[in-house]
Amino acid sequence: MSVKNIGQVLTAAKPYLLMIGLQFGMAGNYIFGKDVLNHGMNRFVFIVYRNAMATIVLAPFAFFIERKSRPKMTLAVFLQIMVLGFLEPVFNQSFTYLGMKYTSASFTSTIVNTVPSITFLLAVIVRLEHLKLKEVRSVAKVIGTLVTFGGALLMAIYKGPAFNLFHSGSTTHHENGSTSHNNNHQMSGAIYILMGCMALSCFYILQSVTVKRYPAELSLATLICLAGTVETSAVALVAERHSPAWALGWDYRLYAPLYTGVVSSGIAYYVQGLVLKLRGPVFATAFNPLCMIIVAALGSLILGEQLHLGSIIGGIIIALGLYSVVWGKAKDYSEPKLASADAEDRKSQQITATVDSKIDISSENLEKQTSSEHNKMGEEREMCVV
C-alpha cells in the first residue's frame, strides 16, 4: 500500500478514530463526576471549576494555533455562543449530575445513549435531516428512535436484581453505604438525565450551525467554556453562598474539575466540532454505547456500583435502537453522493447545451447580418449605375 493510499484510509477513518478515543475520555467524566458528588461537593461549584479549567487550558492553544485563521466575531455568532454555554455547561451538566446523584455513573451513561434519537428528532424539526417514510433508511431511523426511547423507559421503571462485576468486600460495603438510597430515586434520576439529554441534543444542533459560521474549532470550544463559566457562576453564587464550598485542595476537589474540564469540556468540544463538520450531528453521538461499557466496568471496579438487570436489558435495547438510527444515517452519506454527482452531470450538460444553443444563435445572426450587408452593398451599386 502506497503512502497516498494510507493517507486516504486515515482520512476516511479520522471521524471514527476521533469519536472512539473521545468515548474513553468521556468515561472518566462519569467516574470523576460520581466520585465528587459522593464526597458532597456542590454540583454547581463543580461545574464552574470544570469549565473555568477548560477555558484556562484551551485558551493558549486557541490563541496561537488559530490566530491567523480565526474569523471575525459577529453579533449572531456571539449570541449563539452564549446559548451554547447555557445549553451544555449550565443546563445539561447540571441536570445530568443531578440525575447521577440519584442513580449511578453506569445508569447515567446508559440513558445518555438516547441523545442520538433526540438529536435526530430535533434535526428533523429544524430541517437539518430530511424524513421520507417511503425510504428504508428513514424508516430505520424512526424505528430506532422509538426503540431507544422504549429502552430508556424500561430502565426508568424497572430495576431488577443487582450484581457486581468485580466482587470484593470493600466494594459491596461502599455500594450499600452510598448508592442503595440513590437507587430508590431511579425514576426521578432518569427524568433529570433525560432533561440533560434534551439540552445536549439542542447543543449538538446549534453547534453544527455555529461551527459553519465560525470555523475555528479550538477558539469556539474556548469561548463556549468561557460562556459556561460565566453563566454557571451566576447560578452557583445563588445556589451556594457558603465560602467553604468553594475551597479547592489537593484532592477530588481539584483533580475532578481538572479532568472533566480539560477532557470532557475542552477536548470534547473541539473533537465534536471537527466531527460535526465531517459527518454531521447524528454521527457525533453514535459511539456512546462504547462509553457505556467502559463506565459500567470502571463504575463497578472503582466506585463499587451494582449493575441491575433492568439497566442491562434497557442498555441493550437502547444500543439496538441507536445503531438502527446510525445505519439509516450512514445510508444518507452514501446515496446523496451519487445523486449529487448525477445532478452535477445534468447541470454541466444543461450548461453545455445552453452554450451550444447560444453559439448556434450567434452564428445564425452573424450569417443574417453578413447577407444583409451584401444585399445593401448590391443595392447601392445599382443606384450608382443608374
UniProtKB/TrEMBL annotation:
SUPFAM superfamilies assigned to the protein according to its UniProt record, in alphabetical order: Multidrug resistance efflux transporter EmrE (SSF103481)
Location in or out of the cell: Membrane
Residues in EamA domain copies: 15-155, 188-326
This protein's record includes keyword Transmembrane: yes
GO cellular component, one term: membrane
Signal peptide start and end residues: none
Record's protein name: WAT1-related protein
Provenance organism: Phaseolus coccineus (Scarlet runner bean)
